Amino acid sequence: MPARIQPTARQVRLGAELRKLREAAGLSSRQAAALLGTNPAQMSQIEAGNAGVSGERVRKLGVQYDCSDTELIDALVEMATDRTRGWWEEYRGVLPAVFQDLAELEHHATFMRVVGTVHVPGLLQTEEYARAVFAYVVPELPENEVELRVEHRMRRRQILSGAPYEAVLHESVLRTRVADRRGARAQLDELLSQSERPNVSVRVIPFDADGFAGAGAMMLYAGGRVPALDTVQRDAPYGSMFLDASARLLAMRTLFRRVESAALTPARSRDYISRLTKEL
């Protein structure tokens, strides 16, 4: 089977988890390959996400690695055998790969927690807001690519009808006019509308909240089938990062709890957003 040209973040994650199990078992790549009846080069391709692996082989590796976490192995088998080709595949080769990786991450998430201190999170943006964000990119994007990115972002919003989604937004996000006054009002109305979904929570951190030093806490924390497969996505100046090391996941869970503790309750947050809307 030829190596994948561009593995998805989910495929890379599967390989990385298999590598972690091997290293925890104290085995070399060569030893693991022998146990699997393959060669070291193929084993390296599997662990890099550049080659697929069957569910049967994943279970065999779990046994050979003496992994007693059956839920984790079941989850890895599911990742290995998943053949989902979601709507995001239509954009592969057209938009940067991170767009597809993010949509796929959201699709498989069991819950999502997001912190916004600069922009309204993508899943809660109006079309006008998203267009203004993408039009501000430097170097300037061609108009057709701006429209493709907006279209992709709007299609991502369908996930809001599924897994629990909790957003914590700083007041600066609500007051910044990414577009114009009318667009800002429409965006606040959209936040109020989305917050009425039974699985969606929108909470606000007011400017006058004491003890809030988390201005740089922007993140998306996506729950996996088991906690070990949780993922954090953070935006960086030159792209998007996906974090999955256990120490980083623990740090991001702690950070989210700290940010969340500074936020108003969902009910008070809705009142707060309503008041800001009337001021526009």
Counting DSSP H or I runs of 4 or more residues, the number of helices is 12
Largest sheet: 6 strands, mixed
Form type: elongated
Summarize model confidence as the mean pLDDT.
95
Give, in order, the helices and strands: HHHHHHEHHEHHEEEEHH
Q: What separation lies between the terminal Cα atoms?
A: 59 Å
Strand proportion, as a percent range, falls in 5-15%
E-strand count: 6
Low-confidence stretches at least 5 residues in length (pLDDT < 50)? Answer: none
Order of strands, widest sheet: 3-2-1-4-5-6
Radius of gyration: 21 Å
Structural class: alpha/beta
| Helix percentage range | 40-55%
Give your account of this protein's structure.
With 280 residues, the protein is α/β, with parallel strands linked by helices. The chain is 49% helix and 11% strand. It is built from 12 helices and 6 strands. It has a 6-stranded mixed sheet, sandwiched between helices. Strand 5 (231-236) and strand 6 (239-243) form a beta hairpin. Helix 2 (29-36) crosses helix 3 (40-47), helix 4 (55-64) runs antiparallel to helix 5 and helix 7 (127-135) packs across helix 8. The longest helix is centred in the N-terminal third of the chain and has 16 residues, at 9-24. The model has no long low-confidence stretch (mean pLDDT 95).
